[in-house]
């Protein structure tokens, strides 16, 4: 194929014509230089699109599973003052009581007797202001015991944690058995028989 060579003057003239046409086109589109009437302001408006996905920054944090105030004990003893739900877990608030003539360290290891008592109560509440939060483990065994008379067998039935709140005097204290995480795995109220 042959290439045609144009004379130098024709090439220069064509380049000048192209530059003028581009300048006119830019001026018509507002691409020319400002006329000295002030600064040029450029406004950029972002476009937001929703794609239906969610980011982790906009999701609420999942509630944390409750932890026990009684971790490290095998047992605790007192009255259940409140039962609630936290992060889908049942939680009790235990007002710790003292079993007379039993050191708390020993109570934490072996618990208290579950046999019904007669006569004077064998426990006392030395601090009604402090409670301990104890999560209830799945499948925990919770029993309510009632003594009709000292010569009658105990009446016992299964209940849930709410059944331990508001028990009558002389049967309102509860022995709580704990696992290694301080969760309630078993609970029994300690009944007193009528005099």
Describe the structure.
- There is one protein chain.
- Strand 7 and strand 8 form a beta hairpin.
- Strands 1-2-5-8-7 form a five-stranded mixed β-barrel.
- The protein is α+β, with helices and mostly antiparallel strands and 195 residues long.
- The N terminus is likely disordered.
- Helices cover 14% and strands 28% of the residues.
Please provide a brief summary of the model.
14% of the residues lie in helices and 28% in strands.
What is the helix/strand order?
HEEEHEEEEE
Write down the overall geometry: elongated
Uncertain stretches: 1-34
Helix share bin: 10-25%
Instruction: Kindly state the number of beta strands.
Output: 8
- By DSSP (H or I, 4+ residues per run), the number of helices equals 2
Structural class: alpha+beta
Q: Mean of residue pLDDT?
A: 82
Label this structure with key terms.
disordered N terminus; two-stranded antiparallel ribbon; five-stranded mixed beta barrel; 195 residues
């Amino acid at each position: 194929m042959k290439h045609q060579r144009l004379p130098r003057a024709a090439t220069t003239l064509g380049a000048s014509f192209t530059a003028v046409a581009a300048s006119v086109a830019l001026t018509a589109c507002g691409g020319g230089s400002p006329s000295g009437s002030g600064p040029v302001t450029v406004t950029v408006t972002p476009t937001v699109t929703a794609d239906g996905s969610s980011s982790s920054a906009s999701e609420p944090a999942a509630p944390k599973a409750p932890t026990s105030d009684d971790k490290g004990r095998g047992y605790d003893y007192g009255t259940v003052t409140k039962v609630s739900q936290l992060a889908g877990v049942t939680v009790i608030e235990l007002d710790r009581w003292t079993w007379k003539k039993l050191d708390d360290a020993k109570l934490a290891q072996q618990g208290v007797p579950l046999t019904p008592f007669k006569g004077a109560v064998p426990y006392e509440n030395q601090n009604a202001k402090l409670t301990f939060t104890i999560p209830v483990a799945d499948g925990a065994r919770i029993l309510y015991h009632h003594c009709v008379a000292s010569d009658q067998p105990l009446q016992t039935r299964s209940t849930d944690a709410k059944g331990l709140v508001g028990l009558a005097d002389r049967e309102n204290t509860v022995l709580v058995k704990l696992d290694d995480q301080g969760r309630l795995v078993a609970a029994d109220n300690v009944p007193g028989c009528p005099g």
